[in-house]
Amino acid sequence: MKAIIKSKVANLHAEPNSKSELIDEGLYGMVVEIVKQRENDWVYVKTPYQYEGFCRIEDLIFDPQKVDTWQKEAASIIYQGFADILLKPKIQSSKLATLVRGSIIKVLPNEEINKEWSMIQLATGEVGYTRSQWIGEKLELNGVLEEDFRNRVVQTALSYLTTPYRWGGKSPLGIDCSGLCSMAYMLNGVVIYRDAKIVDRFPIKEINIEHIQKGDLLYFPGHIAMYMGDDLYVHSSLGGNEVSINSLNKNHINYREDLATTITAVGSLFPAK
Length: 273
What we know:
By secondary structure, this protein is mostly beta strands. About 15% of the residues lie in helices and about 35% in strands. This is SH3 domain-containing protein. One of its GO terms (biological process) is proteolysis.
């Protein structure tokens, strides 16, 4: 059985209570698999990237027909940090919802409104409007040049700069290290493991550090970052409190010795040349 996340951000906890560890967040429109049935007001779910946790029942839509239709027809993503969904295509309109970057929506055909606005359908069936420039089709890796992908994934990671660090977070409201890297890849059409390690069944493979290029991933004990080129990397650091840029070069003002000297692996989507 599957369900659709209908909350802006649905918390996934280690135990079926809100005081337990936050291990992940599901964003609006994501379809999750129900692994275990109800435990009070919670269900145990599995995300498309194989992360599991307890989610509140109130955050989910369980209707099998709606889930099936949503999976087939919801093919667009919010790329803006935050996007209001309005009742009418004008800024003075009432708000249906506010969605964050990475939320999944369905765009409806409508030639009657200004191109500045797109008509969209939410998972609940409600119809509203949002700025056309804030949304786009789900991206796929097929046909994308390696250099273009590398540039794009770095720019996506940089769009989260100064976002506060949040353990288990993966939105502009707060994001952790693996949340940042996995979201940057997901928004560019690639699902990687949502944790600070390389896992065989996912597309990131270990390479020698001498072959590192922009967009590749740096792994440290319990931490992950994205390499930007020129010895720089972007990451969401518990020590830095937010998404920031640091350097592997000890002569750079943003050098962090604690990370530069503890790299455990380098991962890449592309085979080393």
